[in-house]
Amino acid sequence: MAATKKKRPVTKTGRPRARKGVTLKPTELGAQQVALAERPPELEALAQAVEADGGAVLAAYREPLGGHPLLFVALPVEKVERTAFQRDVSDAHVRKLTLAMDKTRRYLDPIVAVREGERYLTPNGGHRLTALKELGARTVLALLVPEREVAYQILALNIEKAHNLREKALEVVRMYRDLAGALDPRESEMALEFEEPALVTLGFAYEQRPRLSGGAYAPILRKVDALSDEKLSRALAERERRAAVLLAFDDAVGEAVARLKARGFDSPYLKNFVVARVNPLRFMKGAAPPFDELFAQMTKRTQGMDPGKIKSEDVARSGGAAEAE
């Protein structure tokens, strides 16, 4: 008998129940109420800047969820750039976009943009912008947001293509460096934008070692990493230090894997096996030890691992999906 698809529970009114942790109450704006007949001051100044920059304002409206005012604009493509902290452009993805645009002769997916100086930054439209420039388009359509900080929130809202751990961590660390040199908020104030502290430390580590097996270490970091109340410019050095601690542990793991291979073990799960073998958290009750204490303990245990005491069935039991980056 085929399994039936589980549906979300509904209230007596027939509406789906609210998701756990979601407290947002949307505005009551109807479809005919979102258009703005008159622009508020913050939009008026922004609209004049767009026109001075050679662009055109196509509409002014309030987005229906929170009622925030936005502009729908046409911008000169040469004045729009990607933010420095989003993921790298994939040539294969740009090729798919250009082929689709060539076939349909249409561009129907506006980017999100914020204005900075006399240029416009898009935090989520890097592939679309690159494809348009590659095709020689002169104009890009954009939803222009007055608040500069929204550029840092797009990572949480982005549903374009699933990020792998490395892409997500690198986006976070690029955002971290950009913020540290500009708005410089406290780490704890960026919980939404950074998603989780582990991504920050992993991002700094990936900068130093692009092929780091971050998936093996992320579950441990989630237990012991945390955002501080320091401003990013001051906390940056600590993040780099934590990344160095993680990389030192990775070095020890790599050496342990090499010893196991020299002993005749051959498995795609050797790194995960070593990490699981030295990780004490799975046996601990209560709070995890501090970051440095835990990694010092695991690094020491990894360096002292004796391949002669490892049995083939131990490694076999650690099997599963090989770590995917």
UniProtKB/TrEMBL annotation:
Residue ranges of every copy of the ParB-like N-terminal domain listed in the record: 73-159
UniProt xrefs under Gene3D superfamilies: Conserved hypothetical protein from pyrococcus furiosus pfu- 392566-001, ParB domain
SMART domains per UniProt: ParB
Top-level division of the source organism's lineage: Bacteria
Region feature Disordered, mapped onto this chain: 1-21, 302-325
Protein name: ParB domain protein nuclease
Protein species of origin: Anaeromyxobacter dehalogenans (strain ATCC BAA-258 / DSM 21875 / 2CP-1)
